[in-house]
Amino acid sequence: MQEQAGITPETERSAAPTGQLPPTPPPDGPSTILALIERVALHTYADVEKLECVVAMYDRLKAKEAELAYNAAKGRILKKLAGIKIVKNRSVLSDVEKGNLQSGTYEAFKYAPLEEIDKHLRPLLAEEAMDLSYSGELQAGGGILIRGRLKHLPSGHYEDSFMPAPLDTSGGKSDVQAVGSTNSFLRRYVACNIFNIVVVGDDDDGTGGTIDEAQTKTILELIKKAKAGPKFLKYMKAQSIAEAGSLKAAVATIAARDYRKAISTLEQQIAKTEAGHADLS
After folding, report:
1. Which residue has the higher pLDDT, 226 or 67?
2. Is residue 75 within a helix (H) or strand (E), and if so which, with residue range?
3. Which residues pair with 132 in a beta bridge?
4. How would DSSP label each residue in 32-62?
5. Where is pLDDT greater, at 36 or 67?
6. What are phi and psi of 135, to 5 degrees?
């Protein structure tokens, strides 16, 4: 505002030979500055340098106005989302039999699929004329980077959120299936990040974290009964005893998402051990 106030008198002085410009109200928004730009541009003695300053100020005010509109719309969506419960309703089953160790299946984890999140979010976006779009690119290391862009359509203001991940090749997926699975996984997390969505039952969803002290103690007791050794740790993708420094420390590196898998495997191994067919030593 101070910059604009310093423009008008100088412009008027340069126009003095043919009369001064009509009085202009103090600029308090983009529309006022736009009107001033039109008046100054049409005047015979318009100062180009000062006109450029006014145009720059107009652009800044328009950008700020767009940001405020975006924040207001997003704020209304966040308020409505606070009253919506999104639940993990899809299970991922995994074969216990890997490396011919055991047989059967167990529930690895549950998650809320992208369509579950989208069915709650999409109507709210439509109400506020906002759009959430995604784009992705393969990374040099073989993973994927997904960009989520939340845009307020009337104002044009947007914000981006990025999330990378390695390809999900679990379950014997083909390369195409691995890309599709990872893409869907990252879109879910990008949407949740942008709107701070906490899915009910969110328990690390197979994306990181290790078992806690109580779980470590339980597995150690089962390892003793099962007479399991290094092969079990390798099967669970945990550190070796040599790497961790002790059996307890090695067991503590088992992923939290694999806790139920470890319990199921050891319990079945105990049954085999009692029958004299140990194979995890």
Report:
1. 67
2. helix 48-81
3. 150
4. HHHHHHHHHHHSTT--HHHHHHHHHHHHHHH
5. 67
6. -145, 155
C-alpha gyration radius of the chain: 31
H-helix or E-strand spanning residue 2: helix 2-5
Closest CA to 1 of 35, 26, 34, 32: 26
pLDDT tens-digit series, residues 102-116: 445 554 556 677 888
CA distances from 263 to 73, 211, 227, 277 (A): 47, 12, 14, 18
- Beta strands 105-111 and 130-138: pairing type? unpaired
Residues 36-48: tens digit of each pLDDT: 666 666 665 667 7
Tell the residue number behind the tokens 């439509």, with chain if given. Answer: 126
By three-state DSSP, how is residue 195 classified? helix
Q: Encoding tokens for residue 23?
A: 């009085």
The predicted structure's pLDDT at residue 205: 46
Strand, helix or coil for residue 256? helix
Check: CB of residue 150 under 8 Å from CB of residue 173.
no
8 Å CB contact between 57 and 3: yes
Q: Is the separation of the CB atoms in 269 and 280 below 8 Å?
A: yes
CA 267 – CA 269 distance, rounded (Å): 5
Rounded CA-CA distance 77/198 in Å is: 15
Sign, Cα dihedral of 165, 179, 135, 77: negative
Secondary structure of residue 145 in the 3-state scheme: strand
Strand partners of residue 145? 137, 164
So where are the chain's domains?
2-66, 90-195, 213-274
Q: How many CB atoms lie under 10 A from the CB of residue 257?
A: 20
